[in-house]
Amino acid sequence: VKSITGTLQIEGNTFTEEKVTSVINGTKVLGTVREMAEVEGAIEAYDFLEKYKYTNEKDLLLAHKKMMGQLLNNAGTYRHTNVGVGGKEGVTHVAPPPNMVQTLMGELFEWLNSSEEHLLIVSCVFHYEFEFIHPFSDGNGRLGRLWQSVILTEYKSIFSQIPIESVVRDNQVKYYDALEASGSVGESTPFVEFILEVIYKTLQKLQEENQKVGEKVGIKVGINLSENQKEIIAYMLENPKVSAKKLSELVGISSRKIEENIKKLKEEKIIERIGANKGGSWKVLEEKK
């Protein structure tokens, strides 16, 4: 929800996290036809996040079709017209001509498939090069941010749960300044440095929020929880259907340690399992029984 809200608000959409949540839950909300189409498209595109193969160009086209299908007749195909990117002082970047887009994107994905750089760096460089090429008639910013998340999720699955887009939104001016700075010097370093800082801030913020949630639960039940237990509880509250395997990836400890912590939390009546192991969900109790 935070990722979808953040990436759309960067583009001027006024929907809040609450309204996006309502759309996901099927509740009617007030909004323009375009804003609703943007939200529904983003939901569909992000819902597929962990299924995209980051090195597959066809998957990128599929993501664009999902994201922009209600807004563009040519969604899922590269542009056939010239485009420019506007900034504070007018047009700040004229994208390559349309007859070069297919070749440039092919070369970018060849690099993506062969690069031996760390995926953190790869994700940032791809994001910048993608925005430089600007391969679609619309939706390039949204797709660039989405595909960076796809690459990061390949590196560590925890990134599928991390709303980097919302931190970019909170630093929107710096985001565009970094793009312009990289364009001015002719290479991606300023943008890479900016995005790496955004990733670091996002991870810090997530850790702080999880610790606060865990501490509140610990206070309510009158128990001092370990740092790992606080994070486990926070992730269960965020996604009651989260699996032990996913918790292992998110918290960064072994599956055996996750099971040990879950057992302790169950014994203390802090959590309980609703339903079967497969298909069930977690319930975090407000106070000890």
TrEMBL record:
UniProt-listed InterPro entries: Fido (IPR003812), Fido-like_dom_sf (IPR036597), Fido_containing (IPR040198), WH-like_DNA-bd_sf (IPR036388), WH_DNA-bd_sf (IPR036390)
Key word Cell cycle present: no
Residue ranges of every copy of the Fido domain listed in the record: 55-197
Coiled-coil ranges from the UniProt annotation: none
Gene3D superfamilies the record matches: Fido-like domain (1.10.3290.10), Winged helix-like DNA-binding domain superfamily/Winged helix DNA-binding domain (1.10.10.10)
SUPFAM superfamilies membership: Fic-like (SSF140931), Winged helix' DNA-binding domain (SSF46785)
Site residues (Important for autoinhibition of adenylyltransferase activity), renumbered to this chain: E11
GO molecular function, one term: ATP binding
Residues given in the record as ATP binding sites: 85-93, 138-145, 175-176
Keywords in alphabetical order: ATP-binding, Nucleotide-binding
Active-site residues per Swiss-Prot or TrEMBL entry: H134
Pfam families for this protein: Fic, HTH_24
Name recorded for this polypeptide: Huntington interacting protein HYPE
Organism: uncultured Sulfurovum sp
Top-level taxonomy: Bacteria, Pseudomonadati, Campylobacterota, Epsilonproteobacteria, Campylobacterales
